[in-house]
Amino acid sequence: MRLNRLRLQHFRGVADREVLFPDAGVVVLQGANEVGKTSMVEALDLLLTEKDSSTKAQVRSVKPVGADAGSEVQVELTTGPYRITYRKRWHVRPRTELTVHSPVRAQLSGVPAHERVRAILDETVDDGLWKALRLLQGAPLVQGALTGSTALQAALDAAAGGAGGGDAGAAGAGDVVGGETAVTGADVDGPGAQGSLVQAVEEQYSRYFTPTGRLTSAYAHAVRQLTQESQAAVDAGAALQEVTTDVDRHADLATRLVGLEEQRGTARADLAAVEVRWARAELLEAELRRRRTEAGAARNAHAAAAATLRRRRDAEADVRRRSAAVEQLTESLADGHVEVRDHAGSVAAAEGQVASVRGLVARLRTDVDQSRERAEHLQDLADLTRLDAQIDRADAALGELERSRRRLADVPVTGDHVRAIERRTTSFESACARQSAVAPVVLLEALGHVELDVGGERVPLDEGDRHERTVTGSLAVSLPGALIVTVRPGSDAEGLAVAVATARKELQHALARAGVPDLAEARTRYHEHRDAERDLVTAERALSGALGAGSATSLRRRRDEVALRCRRLPADRSDAPDSPDGQAAWRGAEADLDRAVAAARATAEAARARLDDAVRTLDAVVVGCEEGRRRLSARTVELAAVEATLNAARAELAGEAAKLADTRECDPDDELIAAAAATREAADVAAEAEAAAWSALDAADRPALEALLRAARAAADHLCAEWDDCRLALAQVSGRLENAGAQGRQDRYDEAMTRLETAQRHHTSVERRARAANHLRTVLLRHRDAARRRYVAPFAEQVTALGRVVFGPSFAIEVDDDLRIASRTLEGTTVGWELLSTGAMEQLAIITRLACAGLVDETDGVPVILDDALGYSDPDRLTRVADVVALAGRRSQVIVLTCTPDRYRSISDATVVQLRA
């Protein structure tokens, strides 16, 4: 298909536009943003696909805003043997018109015209190729599968050497077992693999399997029926087997019930004997509890008597211990009084030493204050000198900064102004050059003396004189009283004249904004502006260095503070170097001031060192004095505590001695000793009786007897429960046998087996046909995939040949079975498609489409449409891709839509169409 002419009327923002296309070559449609470039592609799609009565959203969206007019699109195209003119209007008075110019002329309108165009396109245009050879603005850079294009497959098949090859068994793989379908001998390679054979096999396959491989309803029904009948046969067999099992179980249960009856009687007799032995053991345990109670009472009586005797012995020992403690405390109190007198003398001597050292510290502190005051005053004088010099430097830098700012304000031309003027000058010169190349030229040559009127201008000519004039608009040349010749340029020349006027106006506006007459003056003023900017930066740096981290105000405020401190001198120091009389001599002598400051600080440091030594001595003496006072106070407190403890001990000793005498009068020591001996003898007798009871109970072995009793009871209970279960199970089996006799389970089992055999035969037949269809489809698809792989080679060669023009001789690609680029190799480095940069993806997308256009036969080809592509390419790649586009344009029709003409300026022999709003 080739576009010959396309016209849009009232289509979105396009009022009326008509574009003529050559049969081959590159057509570049240039225009600013929103001028309606992409709308031309959309208009062509709507014309070829949507009826004039359509109310779809994409049709409603093209209606012009603010105009009661219908959107209209007209195209003249050549496709196959047909050359047609097709026109359609939507929204207002819809209409459809078709004129077939060849091979047989015809005119149609309305729905028949729409259907006729669709039939022509279905017959002659590969829709997959038509959509694949586009690179539209805003569309993601993804690769589409090109294997759906029959025209491309035919071209690749021809380039690969035609169909054929494959496995020897592929020719007869179409036989379908079962007699329903038999398609054999067809060619399954090449583009014809999607013809009648594959379609017939797919139809046969779809009888048994869904596109996802699951079973269809007929095949699944056969499988379910076989499963159901198999389960029914199993259930009937299990029901029949239950009767035989119940007969055998009834005999076993009857025999077992008799045996359990005998075992239950024996277990009851054994349980009675063990219960008698357990009653005797319980009597022995009661006797042991009584003996244990009597022995415990005897032991408690002996423990009480022994405790009373032990308390008497403890009281006697406590009285003796208290007497010894009172004697020891009396001796300690006497020694403490002597030690307190000694500590009091030491504290008095330390207090006298502290008073002496404190006087020395006060004198040294006065010396330190005087030395520090002199050093600080000398430092203020030095700071005042430095601040005066810094303020002078800052004032000079500030003056230079103000002068630089005034120079910069006097020269307002910036780089943006110069670049804008350069762009407008280039545009103006380009417009003038295009106008000179396209606009007609009138050449007037006089054969004798004449006076002509050329465009209202009087032009006298003598014999042999020549006058030349470029015609940019309507030009009238008159010979007064004899002849008037009017020359009118074509529409292109008028458009170029408008472009020249527009460019001139934009240039004048840019010069007016900069305030300069021409580009040379703008550049000169810009250089002066840059020099002023550099001087301003230098002045700012000088001011910053002079001010440091502060400001001029803070610097002056600090100088005033230092000067005020310098004027505050004692009246008795007017002869000192830092007095008001001596400041003039010191001012400016910065080195002398620094030495004087250093000497004063050294004197102050020496005085501070002497003061620190005296303070440390005072601290040590004070610490010693305080330590003596603390020891004296502590020892005095200790003596008071010892005296209080002695008095308390004496009182407690008297009380305990009196208490011991009272208890002896009530209970003499001899009576307590006799009571303890008698209770011990009674406790020994009771313990012997308790031991005898323990021996009798151990002989009865009560734990083993208890375990034997539990085992006998459990055995008896288990046998009773087992006998009950056996009797119940026997009754249930008897009931099932009675019911089974009337159910006819054998007849039902025979019927289930007959249905199972029928279902198996049906399932085997269906499964055999399904497996055959699946096998045939697998073989055909394998050969079709092999044929697709053979197509990859010529496609990859075409893409590689074009790609080396852009990327260089080391360029190579890997193409998958769907004709998508899997990876790119450059300079020995291989990178996957998804890891390429956006610019490389865009360049490869254009090369792939141009390669497809170059492979397809010219009669089957469609236009390649590139909508504002190459936005991510550098200038070098841009030029190379333009060369590839020009190369493809020799054989194919390539339509480029762009708002940036410089991208495609290097395309040789391109037809450039300027689009305007």
Task: Describe this structure as you would to a colleague.
This protein is an alpha+beta fold. The protein contains 18 helices and 20 strands. Strands 2-1-4-5-6-7 form a 6-stranded antiparallel sheet. A 5-stranded parallel sheet has the order 8-18-19-3-20, sandwiched between helices. Helix 8 packs antiparallel against helix 10, helix 16 crosses helix 17 and helix 16 crosses helix 18. The protein is flat, with a radius of gyration of 62 Å. The two termini are 28 Å apart.
Give a brief description:
The protein is of the alpha+beta class and 917 residues long. It is built from 18 helices and 20 strands.
Weakly predicted, low-confidence segments: 162-195, 571-579
Q: How are the strands of the largest sheet arranged?
A: 2-1-4-5-6-7
Considering DSSP H and I runs of 4 or more, what fraction of the residues is helical?
Answer: 55-70%
| Beta-strand fraction estimate | 5-15%
Overall pLDDT score: 79
- Main beta sheet: strand number and arrangement? 6 strands, antiparallel
- Which structural class do the helices and strands define? alpha+beta
Rg, nearest Å: 62 Å
Number of strands: 20
Q: How widely separated are the two ends? A: 28 Å
Any idea what the shape is? flat
The number of helices is 18
